[in-house]
């Protein structure tokens, strides 16, 4: 708080403060503790929500003592919305009445997480008026998490946040809040317009977020390159990952400067030997050669030698379907169903949006209750999904192409001929472009 803030003169004193001996232990050690933050809100926060934070700490310590959680769900929403609010009602409200309701609002962040300090201050002011003052930027869901308000405060807070231009995110069996990296706003590795792709798809499918009607959650994420700064490959049902299909660009003079700075051994150990497909060679004259046909665009060499190496010029996206965490059949990484798609023109973005709509529609029609699309594909088989999406099988869809020792050779000649014909058509289209 700023010097002279009247709240400094009205800090919560020891009188009436719940003892929290078990929580106090979490403040020991070298790392920051969430308990310290909660105590600060209790002692120095806005006067209208200090009692709530005091009872929240009391209930949390009580949970640690009993080794039980004392929150239950319910139904709380804002007018016109079926999701976006996580209701929490206390089962020990008689002991901790000020925190008997502690609901959370999930609010969609701007694409690419772009904020002004003025907007951030206004959001904090709104939550101090109508909530606990506890905000998380951002939860694992990608949302701004406004944590802690009563049922009446939910609508009031939403109305003011909506006036700022923000909308509720997803919760429940619905389209969830999407995430996109900062991308080409400041990153030289970006291979497409992540922010535009994010806004285009979410604005098109917004009803699926605010009016839950899917079998279970469905999440989009947009990463500008294979560094995947928003964990799309592992955590998104529909991951859009930036990539390129021509050669990595090499500045041989910068390569020599890098080697002169860090040494040949360091370069061999951290770049050449770390390439997963052994596609990089270092010549005696300190120049690099890359076998681009073997390159899997993992970004490692580019990350180490950012001045010397960069993505190619023919950039676009790969689309992976089915990434998820835990539950049912365990963790899944996305399946590369579209190895490359250009994403530059209005027509390209329309094509992406149409494909996204088709995937969500397929999920809604074919998934079982509480089943993610990756689990649906695992249950019905990838060929059935590809047939429904009218996508031709591609070697890039093989899960472990370099380690599989089982190969079916029946109809090989016919399938190989189809493959070469398709590649010839694609090459002709690229030349025409």
TrEMBL record:
Keywords: 4Fe-4S, Iron, Iron-sulfur, Metal-binding. Residues 1-26 are annotated as: Disordered. Residues 100-163 form the Nitrite/Sulfite reductase ferredoxin-like domain. It comes from the Bacteria. The keyword Transport does not apply. GO terms for molecular function: 4 iron, 4 sulfur cluster binding; dissimilatory sulfite reductase (NADH) activity; heme binding; metal ion binding. NCBIfam families: dsrA. This is Sulfite reductase alpha subunit. The keyword Iron applies. Residues 172-390 form the Nitrite/sulphite reductase 4Fe-4S domain. It comes from Jhaorihella thermophila. Residues 1-12 have a biased composition (Basic and acidic residues).
């Amino acid at each position: 708080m700023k010097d002279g803030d009247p709240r400094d003169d009205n800090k919560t004193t020891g009188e009436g403060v719940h003892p929290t001996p078990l929580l106090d232990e979490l403040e020991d050690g070298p790392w920051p503790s969430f308990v310290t933050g909660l105590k600060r809100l209790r002692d120095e926060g806005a006067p209208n929500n200090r009692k709530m934070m005091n009872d929240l700490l009391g209930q949390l310590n009580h949970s640690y003592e009993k080794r039980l959680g004392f929150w239950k769900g319910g139904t709380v929403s804002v007018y016109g919305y079926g999701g976006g609010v996580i209701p929490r009602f206390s089962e020990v409200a008689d002991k901790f009445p000020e925190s008997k309701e502690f609901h959370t609002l999930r609010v969609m962040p701007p694409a690419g997480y772009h904020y002004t300090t003025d907007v951030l201050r206004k959001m904090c002011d709104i939550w101090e008026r109508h909530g606990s003052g506890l905000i998380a930027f951002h939860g694992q869901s990608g949302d701004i998490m406004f944590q802690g308000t009563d049922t009446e405060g939910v609508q009031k807070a939403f109305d003011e946040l909506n006036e700022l231009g923000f909308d509720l995110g997803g919760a429940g069996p619905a389209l969830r809040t999407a995430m996109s990296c900062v991308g080409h706003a400041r990153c030289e590795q970006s291979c497409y317009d992540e922010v535009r792709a994010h806004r285009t798809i979410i604005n098109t499918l917004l009803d699926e977020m605010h009016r839950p009607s899917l079998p279970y959650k469905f999440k989009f994420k947009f990463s500008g390159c294979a560094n995947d700064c928003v964990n799309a490959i592992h955590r998104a049902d529909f991951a859009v990952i930036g990539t390129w299909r021509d050669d990595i660009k090499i500045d041989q003079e910068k390569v020599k400067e890098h080697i002169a700075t860090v040494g040949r051994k360091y370069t061999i150990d951290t770049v050449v030997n770390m390439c997963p497909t052994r596609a990089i060679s270092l010549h005696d004259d300190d120049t690099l050669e890359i076998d681009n046909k073997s390159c899997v665009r993992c970004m490692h060499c580019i990350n180490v030698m950012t001045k010397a190496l960069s993505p190619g010029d023919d950039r676009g996206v790969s689309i992976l379907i089915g990434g998820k965490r835990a539950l049912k059949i365990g963790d899944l990484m996305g399946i590369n169903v579209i190895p490359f798609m250009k994403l530059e023109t209005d027509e390209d973005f329309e094509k992406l949006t149409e494909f996204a709509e088709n995937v969500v529609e397929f999920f809604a029609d074919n998934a079982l209750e509480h089943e993610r699309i990756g689990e649906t594909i695992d249950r019905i088989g990838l060929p059935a999904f590809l047939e429904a999406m009218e996508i031709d099988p591609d070697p890039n869809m093989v899960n472990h192409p370099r380690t599989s020792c089982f190969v079916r050779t029946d109809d090989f000649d016919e399938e190989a001929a189809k493959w070469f014909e398709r590649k010839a058509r694609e090459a002709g289209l690229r030349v025409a472009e």
